[in-house]
Write a structure and sequence with these properties.
The chain has 165 residues and is mainly beta. 5% of the residues lie in helices and 40% in strands. The chain has one domain: OB fold (Dihydrolipoamide Acetyltransferase, E2P) (Beta Barrel). The protein contains 1 helix and 12 strands. The longest helix has 9 residues, at 156-164. The protein is elongated, with a radius of gyration of 19 Å.
């Protein structure tokens, strides 16, 4: 893998690398697709795969809150008693929008209906899953039901369409 071209300056005895192409950096408002690489408390770390539909090989990660408020009935303020339910798991493919680049950290939100889990495999057996209702998926191999914060267009086909670009 080549990151650039070496430039030698023999007078000052320095070597400089002229970059071939700089990594694509997300901006506020960009739509990211990535997979959950770490779960810690109420935060998720997402490895970025696509920025606005274009593949990103930069290796950047973003963080987001696992607490969902507003639009899908996930918040406690709406009388939800599920408090400790896991709605995200390691390896889930998710879509979110960049809201901040504070302290050189990419912050995304996944509260809106078009953001959340785009595709996932069964936690129990690793089989394919299908959407059952607004926030529930079912494994087609073992029949396990799981709750997730799903996008409005959840499914394997949606992820295939994104992956083709």
């Amino acid at each position: 893998m080549t990151v650039g071209r070496k430039v030698y300056d023999f007078k000052t005895r320095t070597v400089r690398i002229n970059q071939k192409n700089s990594p694509m950096l997300p901006k506020i408002g960009d739509i990211l697709v990535g997979y959950i690489e770490m779960l810690f408390g109420s935060m998720l770390s997402i490895r970025i795969l696509f920025i606005n539909g274009q593949r990103s090989s930069s290796g950047f990660s973003a963080i987001t809150s696992a607490r969902i408020s507003g639009g899908g009935g996930w918040g406690r303020e709406r009388g939800d008693r599920r408090g400790g339910k896991i709605v995200f798991r390691f390896g889930d493919i998710i879509r979110g929008r960049v809201v901040s680049l504070l302290n050189s950290t990419i912050h995304i939100v996944i509260d809106e209906k078009e953001f959340g889990v785009l595709y996932t495999i069964c936690f129990n057996c690793g089989g394919d899953t299908v959407r059952v209702n607004t926030n529930t998926i079912k494994c087609i191999d073992c029949g396990l039901f799981e709750e997730r914060k799903l996008t409005h267009d959840y499914g394997k086909e949606t992820f295939r369409l994104i992956n083709r670009t």
